[in-house]
Specification:
- The structure is a single chain.
- The chain has one domain (2-63).
- Helices cover 79% and strands 0% of the residues.
- It has helices at 2-11, 20-63.
- By secondary structure, it is mostly helical.
Length: 68
């Protein structure tokens, strides 16, 4: 009986099953969120680096106005 069920599932496209398209959409949404999370992590690192560099330049310009 299990082999018959597995064969039926393999022959049917996942998108044609009642919850198959919902599953595929949630899988695609999860992939988008995962990639977005990685990109946001990179963006936060870039913003942090920019804040440190601009802060250092601000301090240097306050200590030695003619340098910067």
């Amino acid at each position: 009986m299990d082999a018959l069920l597995v064969t039926a599932l393999l022959q049917t496209a996942l998108g044609e099953m009642p919850y198959g398209s919902l599953f595929l959409s949630l899988l695609a949404l999860g992939a988008v969120v995962f990639v977005g999370r990685l990109l946001l992590r990179l963006a936060w690192r870039l913003v942090t680096i920019a804040l440190v560099v601009v802060g250092a330049l601000m301090v240097v310009s306050m200590v030695a106005p003619g340098l910067v």
